[in-house]
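Lab meeting, item 3. Inverse folding demo.
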């Protein structure tokens, strides 16, 4: 059974990811794990016994608060409280705590809320940016102002260097929820032009799933993110899929242009990222 891990810090911003994860787990018949990463500093003068007692009381109180917090979310989206696992993990680094738990427990996806528009850390937060850059497990980034919608249409942005392997992962996400898949390629003038209809027929045969093609020409006067934003306006997807390099080179090219704050698609639709290095 798939495991979907969603993180929360009990903030209002984290509600969007929990709502999304609840619905997604239900659609995919997956196990839902709600994770809270915390870190407690031991006062120098405290004994180990005193600190352990304090930590135990802290965990008990946090579980009670989180249980109430999650119950309110289930009620708000009119879903019965299904079987979910609430987990508390102690780690000085939140992102490391998330990745360690997700890897050890073989989670299929990590779901986390993002903050909105702005520079990289403001768009995603430092924890989310680190997850996207380093997690071997796919990361679902849900805008904090996102309102639940049915996942009907997935747009996969491809650089065509390894599209067959990448498409397998996209379709594995799309198939259980019966979402349509569109593969977008933003081409440069010097690239070999492929026949759209032939390509769609070939992909359907190989993947046993209908995949449409969205061809767009690269406008070198724009940042790459702006070209993707233009394509999103045409495709109107429910979710965008990107494959990122572990070195963060592609991610930085996308989100560090000087006018990145002017692009807003990341504040409107969920983003699913796969690590390209883990795609080999």
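The presenter then showed the designed sequence:
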């Amino acid at each position: 059974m798939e495991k979907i891990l969603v993180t929360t810090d009990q903030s209002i911003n984290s509600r969007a990811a929990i709502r999304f994860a609840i619905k997604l787990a239900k659609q995919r018949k997956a196990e839902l794990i709600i994770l809270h990463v915390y870190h407690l500093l031991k006062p120098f003068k405290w004994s180990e016994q005193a600190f352990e007692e304090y930590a135990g009381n802290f965990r008990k109180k946090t579980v009670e608060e989180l249980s109430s917090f999650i119950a309110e979310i289930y009620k708000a989206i009119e879903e019965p409280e299904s079987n979910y696992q609430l987990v508390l993990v102690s780690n000085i680094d939140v992102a490391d705590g998330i990745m360690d738990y997700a890897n050890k427990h073989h989670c299929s996806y990590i779901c986390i809320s993002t903050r909105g528009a702005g520079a990289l850390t403001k768009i995603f937060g430092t924890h989310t940016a680190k997850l996207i850059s380093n997690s071997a497990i796919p990361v679902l980034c849900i805008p904090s102002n996102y309102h639940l919608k049915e996942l009907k249409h997935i747009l996969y942005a491809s650089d065509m260097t390894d599209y067959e392997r990448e498409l397998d992962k996209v379709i594995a996400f799309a198939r259980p929820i019966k979402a349509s898949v569109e593969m977008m390629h933003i081409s440069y003038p010097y690239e070999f032009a492929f026949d759209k209809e032939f390509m769609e027929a070939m992909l359907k045969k190989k993947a046993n799933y209908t995949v449409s093609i969205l061809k767009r020409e690269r406008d070198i006067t724009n940042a790459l993110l702006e070209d993707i934003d233009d394509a999103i306006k045409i495709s109107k997807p429910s979710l965008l899929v990107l494959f990122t390099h572990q070195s963060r080179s592609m991610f930085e090219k996308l989100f560090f242009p000087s006018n990145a704050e002017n692009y807003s698609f990341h504040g409107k639709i969920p983003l699913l990222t796969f690590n390209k290095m883990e795609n080999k």
